[in-house]
Amino acid sequence: MWGIFAALISGALMSLQGVFNTEITKQSSIWAAAGWVQLTAFLTCVVLYFSTGCGEIWGMFSAGHRYMLLGGVMGAFITWTVIKSMDSLGPAKATLLIVVTQILVSYIVEVFGMFGVDKTGFEWKKLIGAAVAIAGIVIFRWQG
């Protein structure tokens, strides 16, 4: 149950963050806004790290694959692409496309067992579910 609740909070926060970042960009620049997002995220992580009892900080550098350390780099480009898509499409349409893309990429990662994720079998019903979501985007974008 906690996973569902966390996912709902994540979706809400991601949507609101995109709106906030897009508005901040209008007063500044996209990379200044993205930098502010990353800086404040870093500071929040530092505070939470020390307030939750710390833990092994250097363990992440013993990851089997060094490319796994690129999450922060991806985060900068995620911030940039969310801002650009929300500015161009609006929050609802951008979020729909972002979420459907997340579903499709995540499913590919699971089916092929990429990046250390447990491999799952292909299921037509999941592919059909993704197609229905894509159809929802088309209907949502349809202006008549």
What does this protein look like?
The protein has 144 residues and is mostly helical. The chain has one domain. The protein is built from five helices and no strands. Helix 1 (2-27) runs antiparallel to helix 2 (30-51), helix 3 packs antiparallel against helix 4 (91-112) and helix 4 packs antiparallel against helix 5 (124-141). The longest helix has 26 residues, at 2-27. It is globular and about 45 Å long.
Summarize the structure.
With 144 residues, the protein is mainly α. It has five helices and no strands. The model has no long low-confidence stretch (mean pLDDT 86).
- Our count of domains comes out at 1
Structural class call reads: mainly alpha
Shape: globular
Average pLDDT score: 86
Total of DSSP H or I helical runs spanning 4+ residues? 5
> What helical percentage do the residues reach?
over 70%
The number of distinct β-strands equals: 0
**Beta-strand level of the residues, as a percent range?**
under 5%
Radius of gyration: 18 Å
Largest sheet: none
How are helices and strands ordered from N to C? HHHHH
Contiguous uncertain segments of 5+ residues? none
- Span from first to last CA? 40 Å
Any descriptors?
144 residues, mainly alpha
Q: What order do the helices and strands come in, and which of them pair?
A:
Layout: H1 2-27, H2 30-51, H3 71-89, H4 91-112, H5 124-141
